[in-house]
Amino acid sequence: MDPRRIGLLGGSFNPAHGGHRAISLFAREALALDEVWWLVSPGNPLKPAKGMAPLAARLSYAQKLARCAPIRATAIEAELGTRYTYDTLRALIRRYPRYRFIWLMGADNLHQFVQWKNWRGIARTIPIAVIARPGYDARTHGHPAMSWLRRFVRPAVQSSNWTNWRPPALVHLRFRPDPRSATLLRQANPHWYRAYDGSRVRDPLTHRMIPV
Question: How far apart (Å, rounded) are the C-alpha atoms in residues 144 and 141?
Fold first, then answer.
């Protein structure tokens, strides 16, 4: 049996929005994925805790947006006890040895990739697919991370064969830019999460209830 092909999209999802869903479905088709997992972070080390909605609310809303799609919103990092992407990836690979993972990120995240803990280690662990974001492409190509990653870029026409790539391997995926962002949604409705206060939500991977 072929291993399941899983795309990993990490973030605060504060809140999740249609742009996350659109990117995930596009990546699923381009990379021939079985599923995309949204890794709803208990706490993003690069983002301030102030203004961060409770994990249960963020996960509950993310699951709502992921309905009827091959997308699984999970807070598995809370159980794994990992805070940094590099540690999460190593833990997932140990936990799911028969799965093949590829990291999905927007070009805006690649722009700050050098700030991530052991970013070269991340690139050496699993392939990376970078999805175009409005206003970031030109700056990203001249960014310090790309100076190192450029030699490992694969042609987009080979993207469905990513399970045969030996990391480091990076592919740029382009589709219709989506201007939606969590920041704009919070500005429009800073208390969006109150509708999910007290929500009891079960994690689809760990099958455990997320504390309110």
Answer: 9
